[in-house]
Design a protein that fits this description.
Blueprint: H1 5-47, H2 56-102, H3 134-138, H4 144-155, H5 165-169
Length: about 170
């Protein structure tokens, strides 16, 4: 990456926002298609009760095709929803990257807020943990083991940690 990191984050955020907008429109169309396919299938199968037997093959065929279409639209909707969630997450991460550059603490999510250990030699003096701290600045750690590893690395950087892939596989 060359150039200004702020413009990089803005560009990434704009791309993710555009993709999210496009996917949201697709999701709306898929939702409407799902409803239409469901209603068509339900109508075709309900008409079997009142229709003459000569129409049954056509109604069963139409109902079956509509049910298959409904299942297809459900699968497409689920896939599109996951893609939309990923695009929104990319937009959020880009916004957080820009907020980190600006040190805009209100826009950054707070890390795990466990109390700092008592009597630690530098945790209070250097703002290592908590709001507006090094832990807060370093960013998005979303799992409990990840938070614990980051906290361990910040509080005791020379302590032995888990083996790296290089150490394991040479």
């Amino acid at each position: 990456m060359t150039g200004d990191p702020r413009s990089h984050y803005r560009e990434r955020g704009a791309l993710a926002r555009d993709e999210a907008s496009r996917l949201d429109a697709t999701l709306t169309r898929l939702s409407r298609a799902r409803v239409a396919a469901f209603l068509l299938a339900a109508t075709a199968f309900l008409l079997l009760e009142t229709s003459p037997r000569g129409l049954w093959p056509a109604l069963i065929g139409a109902g079956t095709l509509a049910a298959i279409g409904f299942a297809f639209f459900v699968a497409m909707h689920r896939s599109t929803r996951r893609a939309l969630d990923r695009a929104r997450l990319r937009e959020t991460i880009a916004g957080e990257g820009e907020a980190r550059l600006d040190r805009d603490w209100e826009r950054l999510p707070l890390p795990g807020l466990a109390a700092p250990p008592e009597g630690h030699p530098y945790v209070v003096d250097l703002d290592v943990l908590g709001p507006a701290s090094l832990e807060h600045l370093l960013g998005r750690v979303t799992t409990d083991p990840g938070r614990a590893a980051l906290r361990r690395a910040l509080l005791d950087p020379f302590a032995p940690g888990p083996a790296t892939a290089f150490e394991l596989f040479g």
